[in-house]
Amino acid sequence: MTKPLVSPALTQFVAATNGRNMTQAAYVAVMTGLAMMILLTVDPAYNALHHWVDALLWACLAFFVFEWVVRLRQARLTDRVWDYVLSVRGLVDAAGALAVPLALAFGVTPKTAWLLGILWLLKVLPGIRGLRQLRRVLVQESGPLLSVLVIFLLVLFLASVAVYFLERDVQPATFGNIPAALWWAVATLTTTGYGDVVPITPLGRLVAAFVMICGLGVFGLWTGILATGFAAETRRDNFLKTWESVSKVPFFAALGPAAIADVTHMLRTMDLPSRTMIIRKGQAGDCMYFIAEGEVEVDLPGKKVKLGEGAFFGEMALLGNNLRSANIATTRVSKLLVLDLVDFRVLMARHPDLSQTIDAEAKRRELENQ
């Protein structure tokens, strides 16, 4: 019988570490390594706990070396060694595994070499979804961001030359050259204002006031561009997720793409764990629900009814009596699409066929519950 190239346990570890998110062990190793690196710089704490600090640092390093070697071996087995080595993840893994040993090998003192453990923090980055979203926003908004950067640099250099010209004779030690004036311009334009370098001539102070106002405007523009980009990206992601969920509901299957897009803008998604109460009997109803994934249980007098994917509920309170007529809870992890009362009325007006279907189902359920 042929012996497997990789043990089952090792295969599971590779599958886990090749995912986008880090394993729990990797998070523990990163946090432990950073904590020990910090203690290494606190002499009283290190002198008291140096055996534990050194042992944990070496244990973390051994974990990252093992993780790197496992991924290298897996890449070699799939003939993708260079793809992995030259990827961002491969470079981060290599830096985390080799930086400290190489520094020690070249004679760097241990306390200094272990500071390179800060590179382990980079291993957390691939698992942060927000960073991928930030990258997309930066790419999409690169034109406006670069335009504001040009304005920033323009004001920076103009202000530096102006204040150098106005202050060089009265403050030669502070504004004796343009690089020195650039330091003042950066501190002022970023509204930091350390106060170590300050113009004293009337025109110099006028330039300073102009630079401070420009700094507020420039950073306001950057903030507005990024905020707008993030909002647009978030709406796009939510639209795609909702579209995917809507397309799974048979109730909307007969709608065309334009109508589905219209419905998608109105619906919001709700992810719920098992045994979560959604509706309580006697409460006022202001929305209805469509089941995209999962299952709910309707607690009716004398019986319990289960509704699965594609079903909807909560429409009775929107069509007639606005009080909920039953308790409804999830029986397993579920994804629901929520349609509020105002959007419900708009949707029914735009799509009479849906209105008829919902009305017919409501009447059928009302007869069953009598």
From TrEMBL:
Location (main, coarse): membrane
Compartment list: Cell membrane
UniProt KW keywords: cAMP, cAMP-binding, Cell membrane, Ion channel, Ion transport, Ligand-gated ion channel, Membrane, Nucleotide-binding, Potassium, Potassium channel, Potassium transport, Transmembrane, Transmembrane helix, Transport
Pfam families reported for this sequence: cNMP_binding, Ion_trans
Stored SMART domains: cNMP (SM00100)
InterPro entries reported for this sequence: CNG_cation_channel (IPR050866), cNMP-bd_CS (IPR018488), cNMP-bd_dom (IPR000595), cNMP-bd_dom_sf (IPR018490), Ion_trans_dom (IPR005821), RmlC-like_jellyroll (IPR014710), Volt_channel_dom_sf (IPR027359)
Cyclic nucleotide-binding domain segment(s): 251-365
Transmembrane segments: 25-46, 52-70, 82-106, 112-131, 143-166, 178-195, 207-229
GO molecular function: cAMP binding; intracellularly cyclic nucleotide-activated monoatomic cation channel activity; potassium channel activity; protein-containing complex binding
Entry GO terms, CC: plasma membrane
Gene3D superfamilies referenced in this protein's UniProt entry, alphabetically: 1.10.287.70, 1.20.5.110, Jelly Rolls, Voltage-gated potassium channels. Chain C
Membrane topology: Multi-pass membrane protein
Stated family: Belongs to the potassium channel family.
Oligomer status and interactors: Homotetramer.
Function: Cyclic nucleotide-regulated potassium channel activated by cAMP.
Protein name stated in the entry: pH-gated potassium channel KcsA
